Amino acid sequence: MIADKPGLMEEVRARFAHVEACPFEGPRIFFENAGGALRLKSVIETSATYAGYPDNQGRDNPAAAALMAAIAKGKADMALFFNAAGGRVFVGESGTEVLFRLVRTAALGAETGGVMLGSTLEHPASASAMARWAAVTGRPHIRVAHDDATGTVGLAAYRPHLTADLRVATIVHTSPVTGMSVDVAGIAAAIREVAPDCFIIVDGIQHASHGAVDTGAVLADGYAVSPYKVFARHGYGVGWASDRLTALVKEQIVGGPADAWELGTRDAGSYATFSDVVAYLDWLGGHFTTSGERRSRIEAAGKAIAGHEARLMTAMIHGTGNLAGLVALPGVTLIGGDAVEGREGVVSLRLANMASGDLVRFLAERGIRVHIRRNDHYCGNILGPLGYEDCIRVSVSHYNTEAEVAAFLTAMREATGAP
């Protein structure tokens, strides 16, 4: 575990900006990571550097050559991050835009007829893309119902809907509201058994900062992440598309390369800042393996991050030291149950004696940053069936500590009125 290696947690935290204090409000504990992780200091420096370059790609000068080299390195690092065997990595406007592009390309390029399959657990980024392009292509859009009690959706729920005429399927890797992960590999394998030509698109936006990504292991044709949730910055999304998805007709400049996903000139700093993320994971993983292979170190980092966050989730839900966990505090209701296994960095909850908005402010006054989620177009798929209008989301990352969790539980004990 990260916290078990002397000095490592301090080294980790030193690599991120604003770990202990908000630049606007002062000292605080950051438990709003699902809304956007803290930024690596290297990412901030790289962003500023590349924003200042006046030169463009594709010119006959040293500056252009340097930009093209940064893009090439960024693409290689992205492919390593995805553990991609073939296919193409690309940068888009956002993770949401990348998902729309992947779904659109698959829906328009797949064999005509058939159905498109998703689930009610999905973020509206993929669900909306599927609804849009199912309507355009005249296909039914089937949504497998998730389990309110566990906050996830399993293979058993998918099985009745697995038919040979599946054309496009979307799977969310982890819910950003319940924090519960999905057996993507198992569901994808079951889809492949009955519909081997189905295009499978995975929304990895919530998962990507909580463990290693492996597109081959999950049998995906497309995978999307949002870099601002993986220690980078806003302003771009990163996607991977398999060779067969890349071979389909896509929007592209007439006469341009058929295998290119990017449209227009992309920001070289996008690629360079993602290289910073991969370099950080490489560094972190080197503390947990002696392997000389970068991918092995990235996987080791993923395991270390997942293990550390599981410890934080256990402390938050079941208690730490002499502090009661959320399950033992009066009036607390957890969204999606109290399981730690399968949970990736998120606990969403309601408090009987305090409105969610008031609880966010109550915690803020005690130096703890969390966020309210509402029964709207972003979270209504989770909160609506439960009959809730809102909840608060508490989300951690691997640079958070058990001491910070203890401070949160102390504040929650005060909020509940528990002795």
Automatic annotation (TrEMBL):
Keywords: Aminotransferase, Pyridoxal phosphate, Transferase. GO terms for molecular function: transaminase activity. Residues 29-256, 324-408 form the Aminotransferase class V domain. InterPro entries: Aminotrans_V_dom, PyrdxlP-dep_Trfase, PyrdxlP-dep_Trfase_major, PyrdxlP-dep_Trfase_small. Coiled coil: none annotated. It comes from the Bacteria. Pfam families: Aminotran_5. This is Aminotransferase class V-fold PLP-dependent enzyme. It comes from Albidovulum litorale.
